[in-house]
Amino acid sequence: MTDAVLYKKQRVPPFMRQLLAVSGVVLYMIGTGANIAYPGVLLEQLRQPESTLKITSEHESWIASILGLALITGIVVAPFSLQHLGRRVTNQLSTLPSMGGWALMVTAKGPTALLIGRSLQGFGMGVQAASAPVSIAEYSAPKHRGAFLATIAFSFATGMLVAHIFGTLLYWRTAGVACGSFYAVSLILISLSPETPPYLASKGLYTECRKSFRWFRGYDHVSEKELNILLNSQKREISVTTGPRWRHYIDIAKRQEFYKPTVIMMFMFILFQISGMTVVPSYTVPMMKEVTGGAIESYTSMLMVDVLRFATAILACIVVNKLNRRTVLFLGVTISVASLFLTSILLYLRDFGYIPDEYKWVPIIPTMFYIFGKTLGILPIPWAIAGEIFPLAYRSLGSGISGMFLSIMFFVVVKTAPASFRDIGVSGTFCVYAFCISLCGIFLYFLLPETKGKTLYEIECHFKNTNANIKDSSENDRMLELEKIETGRDEGE
Question: Which segments within 129-251 are labelled E, that is strand?
């Protein structure tokens, strides 16, 4: 079987196939961004005197934060689903509770239905939080993986912008229908793509793995070498994973290629949440009202934040693919910390009367730099690293454990935000966020390796402290010829 014949069979370029598969996950994450930002407009509409659905301030904090608790249940389920059902089925199933949650919310007659609907959304988000980075990384070629993983940040920003625009222009029930439609389209696109090659290889389905790999990646010399390495490494991995299940998990916990990435991702997701990533979309209106001192209309400032976040997320897709992961992350950390401290100082100066009334809007300038910094580096890099850093053998388990910290921090940060804004103000809250970002950044500076441009197997070997070149070049060439012969036999059958 010649290269020319195989190239003819692939009328759709590999990049477009990868883009199709990634798009299904991206649309789901747009829905996730809408889930996070929706309370920002929902609660404002429900506070209006003419609203027929009445809620208390306690209801408000639970509606915004209950996603974090529900995320935990989804993340607990995700590793088992990813391991036993696969990436594709897990992605498909995760859309169902999310669509059900939106359906329940748009028909809600009281706060209980809103909370149940938000819980269903959070469960689906939890499953997808573990599945999305793993799926995108396994769909993608190394040269495209950074940009594709950065689309998670783009998706969040797009969903937040869409939810706030819909919520500003439409009645909250109508806006809910529009936001929920993203999941239906996501389900269709996910269903059009095959299972990821690494998952098929991990299950010993080598023929299916080769077909899926070539569907996504085409047929060229470099890709075939990567395919051979994937197959050979999994054949060895499967041969040694015998014995009692509990002993297997204890053995995993002792391996540095498991606990090192897990600790890194714990700090990554703590950084993600403590930077205000989910607080700002949920409480944009009251937060920006205090930052601007009422000089700019609340909904206008909210849309300013959303547009900046959206534009920066687009820039991040380019930057993450061009620059080193560490460079982008620490650039975002530096800008965010400096901007948060500067905003706090300006707010304190304004409160003590050192800034004239005509300039009381000035704190919005460093606030917008803060939005830029966290969207450029803190938003995309944790998700990019999450899809790359865990070895295939326990990628599902590692994603679930690290995702648990994401969900716990989501709940803690969003639930405590109203009390924090009330008791120490936006200025004090920003100081706390800046200090925590700095602390996480210091730990990650010493722990996080560079992953840009490396194959998933090379990253795995980094944590194992082994050589990624499991065979020399001549042996790889020999294996390539054997695989061609075997593939011809498979297709002949």
Answer: none
What sign has the CA pseudo-torsion 383, 384, 387, 390?
Answer: negative
Q: Where are the beta strands (DSSP E) in 394-441?
A: none
pLDDT tens-digit map of 136-155: 989 988 888 888 888 888 89
Euclidean distance between CA atoms 265 and 75, whole angstroms: 14
Compute the distance between CA of residue 362 and CA of residue 278 in angstroms, rounded to an integer.
24
Three-state SS for 449? coil
pTM above 0.90, yes or no: no
What is the maximum span of the chain, computed from C-alpha positions, in angstroms? 82
The answer to whether residues 454 and 325 touch, using CB atoms and an 8 Å cutoff, is: no
Name the CATH architecture for the domain at 12-214+256-454. Up-down Bundle (1.20)
Helices (H) and strands (E) in the chain, counts: 21, 0
- pLDDT at 24 exceeding the cut of 90: yes
Q: Identify which of 360, 14, 10, 33 has the alpha carbon closest to the alpha carbon of residue 186.
A: 33
**Domain extent listing, the chain:** 12-214+256-454
- State the DSSP H helix or E strand holding residue 453, giving kind and residue range, or none if neither: none
Compute, in degrees rounded to 10, the torsion defined by CA atoms 17, 18, 23, 25: 130
